[in-house]
Amino acid sequence: MSEKKVLITGGAGFLGSHLSDRFISEGYHVICMDNLITGSTSNIEHLFGNKAFQFIEHDVTNYIHVKGDLDLILHFASPASPIDYLEMPIQTLKVGSLGTHKALGLAKEKNARFLLASTSEVYGDPLVHPQPETYWGNVNPIGFRGVYDEAKRFAEAMTMAYHRYHGVETRIVRIFNTYGSRMRLDDGRALPTFMSQALEGKDITVFGDGSQSRSFTFVDDLVEGIFRLANSDYVEPVNIGNPQEITILEFAREIIRLTGSKSKIIYKELPKDDPQVRKPDISRAREILDWEPRVDRSEGLKRTLEYFQEKVK
Ligand code: UDP
C-alpha cells in the first residue's frame, strides 16, 4: 500500500505544525505549505530532512500546484489572532475566501478529502451559551473582527457548496481557543501575552474588567479531535474545544500563580466586539467522534510553560 499524502496549508503555523507532526507519526507523507507571514520555519525545522516531509513556500490565495496524488487537504492557512487580522485585514479576507476556493479546487482536481479549519468566531459575540453547532451566531460584519469571522463563515459556505455541487468530501472543524507550544510570543492573544508578561515580570494586561470568558483547549486534544474528524464521514461542522470555561481575569491570576511571578494585573480598554462569553457544546464531537478533551488546563498550562520559559530568555 502506498503512503497517504496530506497537504497542510498554514503548515508552518502553530496548529499546522502540530498537525504535520501528527500526520507524519501516523505514516502520512506531509506537504506543508505556508507563505510564512504569520507561520515560521522554526516550527517545522525538526521535520526538514525527514523523507516524509516537504515544505513549499506559497501563498494559497494564488493558484496551488501540487505534483502527484493527494488524499487529504487540511486548510489551516490564515492569520488567527485578533492582532494579526487587524494588521492584515485584506490578507485575512483573501485567505479565507480566495485561499479556500483554491484549496477546494485542488481537492476537487485531486479527488482528495478536504478539511476546513473554521472557528468559534463564526458564533461572534454569542447570544446562546454554550454554543452548539446549530447556533448561527451573532457577528458584526463591518466590525474589526469581521474580516476573520466573515472570511471563515464564507469559507464554510464555500466548503458546503463544493460538497453539494461538486461532490467533494468535506469536513469542517470549529476550533475554540487553543494553546500550547509554538504560539508566537507576540501574537497578542491572551495566553502568550500573559505568559511572556509573567515571565518577564511585566504588568499583565487584562482587557476590560476581565469578566469575559473563554474555554481553552490544549493543542494535543485539538489535534486528536481533528485527526478523528478527518477520518470520520461526518460533513456538518463539529466543535472541538475544551468546555472548561474561565474568566480572563481568573486566567491571568492562574498564570501568575503558575509562573510564581510578581507581575501585577493592569486593566486596558476592551477591544470592540470582543465576545463576552465563549464555551463549546461538544455533544456532537462526543457522539460522532467519541472525542473529549483529556488534558485539563492546569496540566496543559504546565506543559506550555516549559516552551515559554525556553523562549523568554
Ligand atoms: N485579552 C486580554 N489581554 C491581552 C490579550 C487578550 O485581556 O493582552 C483578552 C481579550 O480581550 C479576550 C480574551 O483575552 O477577551 C481572549 O483573547 P484572545 O486574543 O486570546 O482570543 P479571542 O478569543 O478574543 O479570539
Series of secondary-structure elements, N-terminal to C-terminal: EHEEEHHEHEEHEEEHEEHEHH
Q: Which fold does the CATH topology of the largest domain refer to? A: Rossmann fold
Q: How many beta-strand elements?
A: 13
Number of domains: 2
- What best-fitting shape do the alpha-carbon axes yield? globular
Mean pLDDT: 97
Radius of gyration: 19 Å
Oligomer: single chain
Distance between the termini: 47 Å
CATH architecture of the largest domain: 3-Layer(aba) Sandwich
What is the CATH C level class of the largest domain, in words?
A: Alpha Beta
* Strand residues, percent: 15-25%
Describe this structure in words.
The protein is 37% helix and 17% strand. With 313 residues, it is of the alpha/beta class. The protein folds into 2 domains: 5-179 and 218-243 and 279-294, 3-Layer(aba) Sandwich (Rossmann fold), CATH 3.40.50; 190-211 and 245-278 and 301-311, Alpha-Beta Complex (UDP-galactose 4-epimerase, domain 1). Strands 3-2-1-4-5-6-11 form a 7-stranded parallel β-sheet, sandwiched between helices. Strand 5 (113-119), helix 4 and strand 6 (170-175) form a beta-alpha-beta unit. Helix 1 (14-25) packs across helix 6 (219-230), helix 3 (89-110) packs parallel to helix 4 (146-166) and helix 5 (190-199) packs parallel to helix 7. The mean pLDDT is 97. The protein binds uridine-5'-diphosphate. Uridine-5'-diphosphate is lined by residues 81-82, 177, 189-190, 193, 205-207, 212, 214, 248, 271, 274. Uridine-5'-diphosphate (UDP) binds next to helix 5 and strand 8.
